[in-house]
Amino acid sequence: MPTPRHALRSRSNQDNSDEPSEVPIPKLHQNCSSPSVGFFAPTYPLKKILIPFPVFSDVFNKFHEEQEQEFKTVVQYERNLAVKKEEMAEHGDNLRRLVDRKRSDLRDIQEDVRHMRTKLASLHEKMVPVFNKLLADGDQLDEYNVSSFAIAFAKRLNRDSG
């Protein structure tokens, strides 16, 4: 932003030096119709627009509309990508929670299986002496003092061992 002239004068008075201020004063527009906008604006060379047709023509207007439409298309595409990215992130979070829940369920099931195996081993330890006694006393096996399942199991054990 250019420095106003009155600021340059006040600075030079404050310096108490005889040398003039070396701050460059920008060139100003002399032929500007609006003094509030362009009179104090510095002059810069205009940028060249590399297009093969006149600026104020129907071809330029069509070109400009196509550029604007392309820009709008790109902006809409970026918005769609952002929405898709948010949806995918939410879907990933949901899947992660589901996997964690399933993993927790699997641990619970594994713990239940371990507990059942220890109970079964304990039951087996208690039942082996009973079945050995039943096999030794094979003559006394009947459906009244031992269930039919125990009789079938004892006969199968007797057949497998003998």
From TrEMBL:
Name the UniProt record assigns to this protein: 7720_t:CDS:1
Region of interest called Disordered, as start-end residue ranges on this chain: 1-23
Assigned keywords, A-Z: Coiled coil
Coiled-coil region list: 74-126
